[in-house]
Amino acid sequence: MNPQFLVDGLIAGSMIGLGAIGITLTYSILRFANFAHGEFLSWGAYIALALSGALGFLFSALKTPVGPFSFGWSLPLAGILAILLTGMLALLLDAILFGRLRAQRGAVIIMVMASFGASLALRSVLEFIFTSKPAYYTKALQIAVNIGGGLRVTPDQMLALALTAVVVFAIHLLLTRTGIGRSMRAVSENPALAGVVGIDVRMVIRAVWIVGAGLACIAGVMAGLLVQIRPYLGHDLLLPLFAAAILGGIGSVPGAMLAGLIVGLSEAAAVQLIGAEWRAAISFVILVAVLLIRPRGLFGRQA
Amino acid sequence: MTLGGGTNLVPALQTRSLIAGYEPDMPIVRGVDLSVLKGELVVLLGPNGAGKSTFVKAIAGLVPIHSGTVHLDGQDITAVPVHNKIRRGLAFVPQTENIFATMSIYENLLLAAAMAPKSERERRISTLFERFPDLASRPSRLAGQLSGGQRQMLAVARALIVHPSILILDEPSAGLSPKIVAEVFTMLQDINKSGVTIILVEQNVRAALAIADRAIILVEGKLRHEGSAATLADDPIVAKLYLGASATRKAGVS
Ligand SMILES: Nc1ncnc2c1ncn2[C@@H]1O[C@H](COP(=O)(O)OP(=O)(O)OP(=O)(O)O)[C@@H](O)[C@H]1O
Ligand SMILES: [Mg+2]
Hints:
The complex is a heterodimer.
Chain A: H1 4-30, H2 37-58, H3 74-103, H4 108-130, E1 145-146, E2 152-153, H5 155-177, H6 179-189, H7 191-196, H8 201-226, H9 238-248, H10 253-273, H11 279-293
Antiparallel strand pairs in A: 1-2
Chain B: E1 11-20, E2 29-37, E3 41-45, H1 52-60, E4 65-72, E5 75-76, H2 82-85, E6 90-93, H3 105-113, H4 118-131, H5 133-136, H6 148-160, E7 166-170, H7 178-193, E8 197-201, H8 205-211, E9 214-219, E10 222-228, H9 229-233, H10 236-244
Parallel strand pairs in B: 3-8, 3-9, 6-7, 7-8
Antiparallel strand pairs in B: 1-2, 1-4, 4-5, 9-10
Helix pairs in contact in B: 3-4, 3-6
The complex binds adenosine-5'-triphosphate (ATP) and magnesium ion.
């Protein structure tokens, strides 16, 4: 078996993990499975594409590749703005859709169906604006470096792995060491008691949307950089994202990240062992197996 | 009416024709007028399902109020959202799930202390630890691993950290051994003596009446009986009202 699958699996797993953290956070606080979460990845990727194009057009120096990487400063700058804008998109969606349903104390299934609808609508808008033709942040080619053991990694890939590690660590610190993080955990355990101790639950919900959508944007930009940008980018990752969120245990950030890596590596191994057409089945098998054998996942709370 | 030492005749909390319930067309609390004076310790009795929890949850902002008003220190707080009630000086300890089980003792306190100015938080927590040495021994312990008595202590400590003017507790003695119940009640008495008005929902009639200034009895969502704790303790009507509808929980009345 070619060990290269390790690199492919870790890369895919990083994106899945970042997306799954967003799903696990919104699920544990808003208590519904948001099927529109994948669209945050796609929207993040396209917003960054549009902004980085605009920045490159205005200041052509920003297009010059930085160091060994394939992209210029326009992409990281656009990425930071895109994180904020994707967060705004999530807030907007909550204000016009999910928040209203919450206020009516709608059933969970209504929220889930609404998220399906939102997902279709968001994707159609992307296809309308950007067409379904794949797009790229950069046309520059990258040479993979041999890092020993027959493994070849491009500088962009190494950066993505490092960035994922930093971001996950930062989110972990946010949840465990800061007031807003503690409030998020409190709301996720018991929203009524959270209110009683003085936490404004609506404010926490807004913060969670921003964090979840921001992480989705980072995952989307990575997917766009390392593979390509398509309107279906996020949609196609939806099953792996949910498989990872549930395998990791709803509410667990380390769980979602670890499970994301497991799903990514399993997919990559399956591609080599049984064939690329089986990639999509892996997430499904993991999802069903976890639900049957250990529904609370690796690190989830006992129900 | 005989009142305890710290009371003066100013209302701390008042409900007027309070109607509240979980569904819009299903009132559980059906028109309650209650006035609690500053410094008073009032015990709220009543059979299971009488609506005691619903009543105090409505005051705390956890159950929708259909009509009527709640005033705290003369200000209308009927529409104040739950998270702002504590900022007005009203602290509530729910009947069940009144601590965050997945968080440490310290984090539970820190969450509530977030209301206080940043510079004061640590000091308030250490003051509370002096008062509750049981909690102080290992602040990093998960609250979910505490014994029943320690959980109640933590829930009360959490409520006190914001220096409330009124403390509402829903059956803090439920599930505790008689010895621990006595400890909890002594502690509540101390808190009351330090000037905090207390409304205490209880099934533990004798023990509660022993520390209360006044008792009120809620039956089917309405105030049925009200009087000083001393007279109610020997009142046959209390035993009748109470036991009549609550044969399963006699244990509290000895
Ligand atoms: N979350 C809820 N949703 C709908 N109805 C509820 C809810 N909680 C309680 N009730 C109903 O409200 C009524 C009053 O319940 P409540 O808990 O206020 O009584 P209680 O006097 O506190 O009883 P207990 O002594 O058992 O604690 C009961 O008929 C109960 O079934
Ligand atoms: Mg009750």
